């Protein structure tokens, strides 16, 4: 057994947590003392309120929260695949994790393109989202590499 499946699983698990954090945190954009996210906008004093939905924030929220489903399914399949030594479940989980990374890329690109025309400074949530993309992509990719390398046998 190699360490590659465990590294892939760890990357996907961290990507799930980072995607959830990025989705609910209010630090997508920062303009002076004001910060805004996919659900809330906050002032420097810490008072937050629900955001007024705009097309870019709604699309970003859809893609960011939408990526949690395939990331969660991917993580679950990878865990059960490793536990039960079933390569097919692990491979399916890897594919789901990779697809989730692509979904996140679309959401973050929409947000980035829509806010580039304004003098916007991206906040921590935006970068956390990109970290989730990178880790989800790496985890899914490493899982697929492991599955393809060990394709001669049906077990782990």
- Topology as H/E string? HEEEEHHEH
Total number of strands = 5
pLDDT < 50 runs, ≥5 residues:
none
Quaternary organisation: single chain
> Number of helical runs?
4
Major beta-sheet overview = 5 strands, antiparallel
Question: What integer is the average pLDDT?
Answer: 83
Question: What overall form do the CA principal axes indicate?
Answer: elongated
How far is the first residue's CA from the last residue's CA? Answer: 8 Å
Under CATH, the topology can be stated as Butyryl-CoA Dehydrogenase, subunit A, domain 3
Q: Trace the largest sheet across and list its strands.
A: 4-3-2-1-5
CATH architecture group name? Up-down Bundle
Share in helix = 55-70%
- Secondary-structure-based class equals alpha+beta
Strand content: 5-15%
* Rg, Cα atoms, Å: 18 Å
CATH classification, class level = Mainly Alpha
Domain unit count: 1
Signal peptide: 1-23
Transmembrane segments: 59-80, 92-113, 125-145
Keywords: Membrane, Signal, Transmembrane, Transmembrane helix
